[in-house]
Amino acid sequence: MKLRKSSNLSSYYPIDRTVESIITHKRIRLWVFLCLMVSLTIGTSAIEAWGDGSVSYPDNLMTDNWYACVSGDDLIPDIMLGRFPAKNKTELNIMIDKTIQYEQEPLYGEWSNNALLMSGAIEGVHEDIEHLRDEYWLPAGYNVSEISALDGENASDVYSELNKGQHIVYYTGHGVVNGWEQVFYDYYIPELTNERRLPAIFSMACSSGHFGHPDKDSLGEAFLKAQNGAIAFFGASRLASGTNLLGLGLSEAVAELNIYTLGEIVRHIKLKLQYSLDMELYNLLGDPALDLGAPRRQPGKVDLFVSPTNISFEPQEPKQGEPVKITAVIHNYGVADARDVIVELRDDRKANPIRIKLRN
Predict the structure, then answer these.
(1) How far is residue 227 from each of residues 3, 112, 198, measured CA to CA in Å?
(2) Which CA distances in Å does 215 have to 36, 40, 169, 212, 237?
(3) Per-residue pLDDT band at 353 (split at 50, 70, 90)
(4) 150 vs 208: CA distance, rounded Å
(5) Last residue of some domain: 296, 321, 337?
(6) Is residue 106 part of a domain?
(7) How far apart are CA 167 and CA 115, in angstroms?
(8) Which of 6, 133, 184, 238 lies at a CB distance of 3.0 to 4.6 Å from 60, suitable for a disulfide?
(9) Please, what is the end-to-end C-alpha distance for the chain in angstroms?
(10) Does residue 21 sit within a domain?
(11) Are 286 and 328 part of one and the same domain?
């Protein structure tokens, strides 16, 4: 289900203006991508989140997750759901235009291979960042930048890294409605010059995705409403407990499984969070059908990828001198066909790798 533009506000809705007519159609068997196009104040078209207005934990539910649960009695989303948190047509147009351009006129370049991993002023979370970096992002070939508040890095460092262009941004640490505590706040966003090199941001922090605040925009809303800023933001709407499951789910989905559809990435994360009190608190601001792989598929180029999970050995524990069958599945996420591929198998104990040439 792709976005389309119209001068009539009601026709922004992909299927029908009423959410109920979409999500309660129990005969749907294929994945549905639903984007709630308005947040609070566009006439009578507002689609409000489910919640009781409380700001105290654990009665702090402000969530869109309810809209996505249409089968069974669990809280796991059955459809891919996101929200464009617009208060007027101008804000809505900015979000839609950025999304369409990101997919239909992608800006190719090295920026789409960048990942920014950030940690706030909490002891221990930097170790989580290092684990994700070493086990997922570096093996997947990403150019990883790190920022840590405990190391004295601050908003100027975040500002500089964002302006380089980032494909994925992950933050873990303390958060408030309009920022990442001691790291970055919404008033820096209008000065960003990252133009079309827009990141999808995943924020494991309290309240940074609080799209229902009565008096001000959250950090996530500010990123989406800016001409530059971000293409999507996944964050908590209220106070949240600390967990590394969000970062683990994100890293598995993108860096290991090469999942590029935004809604599918979010669902993978929510599966990780399903036994956490935080699962409902995290909401997607952005189009769940967005293809994050668009700027990585440069015309005329291949994009080969082998995950550790795609390599198997038979037997798994060979004896000395016993022949071993090695099976590797090589994925090509690029646009061009891959031909005459050379695969190197390295043994760290030996200087020279084994080179195998594959022909299509």
Answers:
(1) 18, 18, 10
(2) 21, 12, 27, 9, 14
(3) low
(4) 20
(5) 296
(6) yes
(7) 6
(8) 238
(9) 34
(10) no
(11) no
- The pLDDT tens digits for 214-273 are 889 999 999 999 999 999 999 999 888 877 899 999 999 999 998 999 999 999 999 999
Q: Is residue 136 part of a domain?
A: yes
Distance CA 47, CA 44 (A): 9
Residues 281 and 319 in one domain: no
Domain range holding 314? 304-358
Q: Is the peptide bond before 295 cis (omega within 30 degrees of 0)?
A: no
Task: Let me know whether 135 and 229 are in one domain.
Answer: yes
Cα–Cα–Cα angle for 164, 168, 171, nearest 5°?
Answer: 100
The span from the CA of 158 to the CA of 80, in Å, is 30
pTM comes to: 0.78
Same domain, 175 and 280: yes
- What residue has token string 């099976």? 327
Whole-angstrom distance, CA of residue 97 vs CA of residue 99: 5
Q: How many domains does the chain have?
A: 2
Query: Of 296, 316, 336, which residue sits at a domain end?
Result: 296
Mark whether 317 and 285 lie in a shared domain.
no
Identify the helix (H) or strand (E) that includes residue 161: helix 155-164
Ramachandran class of 195: left when φ > 0, alpha when ψ lies in -120 to 50, beta otherwise:
left
Q: What is the DSSP string of 233-290?
A: EEEESS-----SHHHHHHHIIIIIS---BHHHHHHHHHHHTTTSTTGGGEEEES-TT-
Quote the CA–CA distance of 218 and 335 in Å, as a whole number.
Answer: 37
